[in-house]
Amino acid sequence: MGAEDSYSIDELARAAGMTTRNVRAYRTKGLLPPPVRSGRASQYRTAHLDRLRDIRELRDAGLPLKMIVEAARRGEDLGPGGPLRLLAAGFGDQDGWPDDDAGPGPTVLDDPRAYEILQRLRELGLAPSVGLVASLRIAQRSADLGRELDTLVAQDAGGVDPSSERGVQVRESLVQLSVLITDEVVRQMLLPD
């Protein structure tokens, strides 16, 4: 490698753990800005390497390249705080997301109906990452609500044992109530009269 933050295309590819062909393909797709020209040579910087590592992490997490390209064209951050990274990681410790001490989070998009809805949103023109980020936020806020309700039930003056039949019935009723209220509130916000 030349200067500390200067790479040839071969050095960049090696440092990013990919082929020079991939680097060129990502440049062609607009995922990587052009290199800095130094005479006849092209030099890549640390920012290029960071971007390639972000793309590789997203691809390794199973996100389709098309989704990454679309997000980049919209100017979305592909880095650790960006929506695709949050999607790829599920729930991390970024601002607004629970840390390891927050307890178990929801299994996001475990229901096949969620994928059908996301596909319909995509057909209606909503960017895939927007629908997925919305799903993550809804799931996170729902998990927060679930933890709050669990605490509320645990503090109940009647001392409901969570494992008792009554405790299970109380929790099932709270789930039903939460679904109904959430559905109504979201409908009123998104579909005003």
TrEMBL record:
Signal peptide: none annotated. SMART domains: HTH_MERR. It comes from Spongisporangium articulatum. This is MerR family transcriptional regulator. Pfam families: MerR_1. Transmembrane segments: none annotated. Residues 6-74 form the HTH merR-type domain. PROSITE patterns: HTH_MERR_2 (PS50937). Gene3D superfamilies: 1.10.1660.10. It comes from the Bacteria. PANTHER family: HTH MERR-TYPE DOMAIN-CONTAINING PROTEIN (PTHR30204:SF93), REDOX-CYCLING DRUG-SENSING TRANSCRIPTIONAL ACTIVATOR SOXR (PTHR30204). Keywords: DNA-binding.
